[in-house]
Amino acid sequence: MGINEAIAVTYEALIVIIKITFPTLAITTALAAGLTIFQSVTNINESSIQQDVKIFATLAILFVTGPAIFIALRDYTLIIFERIAMLQ
C-alpha cells in the first residue's frame, strides 16, 4: 500500500464520518440555537431544559438515521475488507 492509497482510505473514512454525523450535529445545533433564542426572549434561565431537549432530540435523530448509519458503515467496511484482501 502506497501513500496515495493510504490517503484515499483516510479521505473515504472522513467522508463516511461526515455523512454519519452531519444530520445529528446540524439538527441539534439548530435546535440549540432556537432554544437559546426562546429562553432569552422569555427570560427562562433554566439550563436543564435545553440539555434535556437536546438529549431527547439527539436520541430521536439517531433512532431515525440508524439504518442509514448502519448501511454507510457496512459499505465502508466491505470496501476496506476488499482492499485488505487485495494486498496479499
From TrEMBL:
Domain of life: Bacteria
Database matches in Pfam families: Bac_export_3 (PF01313)
GO biological process: protein secretion
Main location: membrane
InterPro entries: Bac_export_3 (IPR002191)
Keyword entries, A-Z: Cell membrane, Cell projection, Cilium, Flagellum, Membrane, Transmembrane, Transmembrane helix
Protein name (Swiss-Prot/TrEMBL): Flagellar biosynthetic protein FliQ
Lineage: Bacteria, Pseudomonadati, Pseudomonadota, Alphaproteobacteria, Rhodospirillales
